């Protein structure tokens, strides 16, 4: 019950809204860069997506690190950045496979962006909250129990 209560707290709802803004920045910057590369410059979907992700990824990290999860910063910058790169690298592979698979069955990469972002909104929230930018563990001074 306390887990659900903590998820629904005013602080967590506010954090989630900030997270959504950061994700929106990532999505729309990435979507625009992808559109320019894919449709205007006629690049393949993969090079356009790689550039879109690199730009969106960087802006998202800054927003998440400095705004959405700023009160949970207690690891070194390298630890947060390393965790972010690690989890996003896994996400990239999954994302590219999703969009590739959708394109293979005739769904436009533009639609694939939206489908994949729905999944990664949930995926990233949990990874960011509990691993990339985790809350500092509270130390309790409970006396040891003796038998």
What does this 3D model show about the protein?
The chain is mostly helical and 147 residues long. It has one domain. It contains 5 helices and no strands.
Tag the structure with descriptive keywords.
147 residues; mainly alpha; 5 helices; 77% helix; 0% strand
Summarize the topology.
Layout: H1 2-7, H2 10-40, H3 45-68, H4 77-104, H5 109-132
Helix pairs in contact: 2-3, 2-5, 3-4, 4-5
What is the rounded distance between the termini?
31 Å
* Strand segment count: 0
Instruction: Give the helix/strand class.
Output: mainly alpha
| Structural domains: how many | 1
Number of helices: 5
Residue share in helix: over 70%
Order of helical and strand elements: HHHHH
| Form type | elongated
- Residue ranges: pLDDT <50 for 5 or more in a row? none
Whole-number mean pLDDT:
89
Strand portion: under 5%
Biggest sheet overview: none
Taking all Cα atoms into account, the compactness measure Rg is: 18 Å
Quick overview:
With 147 residues, this protein is mainly alpha-helical.
């Amino acid at each position: 019950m306390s887990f659900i209560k903590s998820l629904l707290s005013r602080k967590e709802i506010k954090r989630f809204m900030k997270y959504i803004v950061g994700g929106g920045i990532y999505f729309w910057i990435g979507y625009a860069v992808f559109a320019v590369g894919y449709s205007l410059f006629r690049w393949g979907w993969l090079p356009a997506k790689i550039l879109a992700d690199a730009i969106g990824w960087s802006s998202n990290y800054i927003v998440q690190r400095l705004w959405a999860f700023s009160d949970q910063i207690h690891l070194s910058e390298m630890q947060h950045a390393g965790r972010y790169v690690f989890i996003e690298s896994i996400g990239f592979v999954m994302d590219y496979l999703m969009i590739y698979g959708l394109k293979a069955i005739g769904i436009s990469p533009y639609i694939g962006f939206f489908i994949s972002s729905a999944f990664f909104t949930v995926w990233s929230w949990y990874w960011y909250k509990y691993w990339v930018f985790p809350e500092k563990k509270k130390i309790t001074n409970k006396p040891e129990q003796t038998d």
